[in-house]
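To the wet lab folks,

You asked to see what we're planning to order before we commit. Fair enough. Below is the target structure as tokens, and below that is the sequence we designed to fit it. If anything looks off to you, flag it before the synthesis order goes out.
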């Protein structure tokens, strides 16, 4: 197999992974800059290699999870993107994520060829460390609550200083400059709200699961956020 074709097959796998649903052959052809006929031929090749790709010409294709290609292809720019992203995570989130991202880079480095491995130590980028506001929130515990779809009880002070206690269903974390935010469903208000982490005075992580699916709740919240008249920030 030629080098150019092997890279094209890897690129095709990446595009299929990025599209979580069925994607049309013409869309794949446009993204990769090749003909539809080439896409169809490459799909057959990947299927023969063991990739679980469902679909057919005229309908579209979807890659089922679980298939791994050999770790041959990171470009230099992809390596730089990983390093820059790792720096940002290490300096702007919490200690648990910082440790996790360094472990991930070490695992990637273990399978890279020597000429690309040097890129992991490249100093092309510098990401400054953000001064994190004081907060009682343990973001690692918040992430766990989101994964397990568990409720959180918080005492929260709004922008005017009014204090309230409420149960929320955490669905997303936000990082903007030095501020940390939690987006979630507020049982007190019966609506989605955004809470600034350093305005949270006390927090309890509950055993109660919240209903529904977190990803679906994120979609519903984003759909509401498209309406500019709706103010969601609780400060």
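Sequence we intend to order:
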């Amino acid at each position: 197999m030629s080098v150019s074709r092997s890279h094209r097959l890897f690129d095709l796998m990446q595009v299929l992974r990025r599209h979580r649903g069925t994607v049309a052959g013409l869309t794949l052809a446009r993204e990769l800059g090749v003909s539809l006929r080439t896409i169809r031929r490459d799909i057959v090749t990947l299927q023969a290699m063991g990739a679980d790709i469902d679909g057919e010409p005229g309908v579209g294709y979807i890659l089922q999870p679980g298939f791994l290609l050999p770790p041959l292809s990171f470009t230099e720019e992809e390596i730089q993107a990983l390093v820059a992203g790792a720096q940002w995570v290490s300096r702007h989130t919490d200690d648990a994520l910082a440790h996790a991202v360094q472990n991930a880079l070490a695992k990637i480095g273990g399978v890279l060829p020597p000429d690309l491995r040097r890129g992991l130590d490249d100093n092309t980028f510098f990401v400054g460390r953000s001064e994190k506001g004081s907060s009682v929130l343990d973001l690692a515990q918040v992430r766990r609550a989101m994964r397990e779809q568990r409720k959180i009880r918080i005492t929260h002070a709004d922008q005017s200083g009014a204090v309230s206690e409420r149960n929320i269903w955490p669905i997303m974390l936000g990082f903007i400059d030095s501020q940390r935010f939690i987006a979630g469903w507020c049982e007190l208000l019966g609506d989605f709200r955004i809470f600034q982490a350093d305005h949270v005075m006390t927090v309890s992580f509950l055993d109660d699961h919240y209903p529904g699916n977190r990803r679906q709740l994120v979609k519903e919240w984003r759909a509401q956020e498209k309406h500019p008249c709706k103010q969601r920030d609780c400060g």
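Structural context that might help your review: Residues 76-92 form the longest helix (17 residues). The chain has eight helices and seven strands.

Thanks,
Computational group
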